Amino acid sequence: MLYFAYGSNMNEDELTDIGVTILKAERVLLRGYKIALTRFSNKRCGGVLDILSSEKDTVEGVLYEIPDKDKLKIDIKEGLKGGAYRQIPKPLQVETMAGAIRKGVISYEVCEKEKPLYPPAASTEYKNSVLRGACEHGLLEDYRKKLKVVLEKRKTQEAY
Q: Is the residue at 157 inside a domain?
């Protein structure tokens, strides 16, 4: 199964700690989306990332190949039953750094987004986990800077 991670799940510890087996991981691009803090998480004590449709933007992230049986572990972590996140209905298409297109990719989005003028601030722990994963997988320095800006923004956030 192919799974696109763009937030804290880019940090492999987030997945291995819940028993997910990572068969392969690579840095990829998801075109037509941008990142934003759109939800307050009680578990994370702050805002968490989401991807929003945006024709002109691109999100960098990690494409994981995992066993099909481990999808349930990610569903639980993402709070599917509690309504925190949902699997994006349409399979995604990502681009590898070598230019190859990978189709049939799953990812998740926030179910109920916060009002755009008042995005919740990310906690230091969450921010560090996201940035650790971004470094671990070699996301471009400019993109890591954008991530940091989004994670540290308070009111009137402009998503990237």
A: no
| The pLDDT value given to residue 158 | 47
CA angle at 154 for the pair 87 and 145, rounded to the nearest 5°: 75
Q: In whole angstroms, give the CA distance from residue 77 to residue 60.
A: 21
State which residues of the chain have pLDDT below 70: 115-119, 154-160
pLDDT at 116: 61
Q: Is 94 part of any domain?
A: yes
* Tokens 């601030």 sit on residue: 121
121 lies in a domain? yes
Provide the domain limits for residue 61.
2-152
Classify residue 34: in a domain, yes or no.
yes
Comparing C-alpha atoms, which of 43, 9, 7, 42 is closest to residue 25?
Answer: 9
CATH number at residue 88: 3.10.490.10
| The total number of structural domains that make up the chain | 1
Q: What is the mean pLDDT of the chain?
A: 92
2: nearest Cα among 86, 77, 93, 129: 93
Is pTM beyond 0.85? Reply is yes
Decide: residue 101, CB within 10 A, 0-12 exposed, 13-18 middle, 19+ buried.
Answer: exposed
